[in-house]
Structures are given as structure tokens and as C-alpha cells.
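Archive record:
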Amino acid sequence: MRKLKITELNRLSPEEFKKSEKHPVIAVLDNVRSLHNVGSVFRTADAFSLRGVVLCGITAIPPHNEIHKTALGAEDAVDWQYFENTREAVLTLKQQGFTIVGIEQVDKSIQLTDFTPQPDAAYALVFGNEVKGVQQKVVDLCDFCLEIPQYGTKHSLNVSVSAGIVLWETIRHFLK
């Protein structure tokens, strides 16, 4: 076994990435305060070829050194939009035909392991603030919520970790 060199990974340039076909998934960040988490979501969005990222409220926007520190340039390749409030973003995405999915622990959440995206649908996955999660007024607009099964004492994950898990579990269904 030999570790591959960067030149062997057949990576797309940012220009090639922008022109490539994307999966019908958008990550929506609802008032995410950590710029490192924002950068990590950009990098994950790039890795899984998402249609884009929507940044809302207090969520910082590129260009910013702290976002770049974890995004490593993905913020230049991935399409993104900013909205002053998440509710406005969600209503706009609904009008564009996206199914709105909150990533939150609610009384009627669906376990991530039980979720199978429809191949002809587009999804906007809403990830919440590191402390307060997805705002209730945003949860109220969601078509449904997904919950990551957890078995320890905390029952919470860092937002960028949650994004990585949920985005992979969603995208892998489109790869079949």
C-alpha cells in the first residue's frame, strides 16, 4: 500500500469544479458562529460536490482568513449565498423547489439511518448554531427533520461533524 501524491488524485481546478455537475443538495448554515465550522462545511461541500452553501444571520462570509484556514480554498470553488435571516433563505429555497430538512432533535425527527432521499428531489439541509441549534421558527418551516443516532452521554455533535455525517449519508444515495 502506498499513499497517493496530490498529483495522482485527479483533482478538479476551481474553474472545472464550478462547471461540473453537482448533487441536488445545499447546506444551509443557520447562525453558525465559528468561522472554522463554516470553512469545514465549505470543504465538505466541495468534497461531495454540493450545489452550494447558504450562509445566514451571524454566519461569517468569505473572504475571511479564519474560513480559509479550514476551507483551504473550497470557499472559492463552491457557490454560496448570504441571507440576513434563515427564514428568508428557507422560504426562497422552498420557492425554488427544495425540500427543506432540518438537522435537529425534534419530537418527530426521522433517524438519519431511516432516510432515503428521492432521486428526483433537491434538498436544502439546515444546520444550526453551535449552542442553540436550528431556530424553532426555522424548524417550523422544515418539511421534516433528521436526527443523527447517538449513544453516549452528550447527544450533540459539532456542527461541522454533523454536516459531514449528514451530507455523506445524503450524497451516497445519489451515487448509486
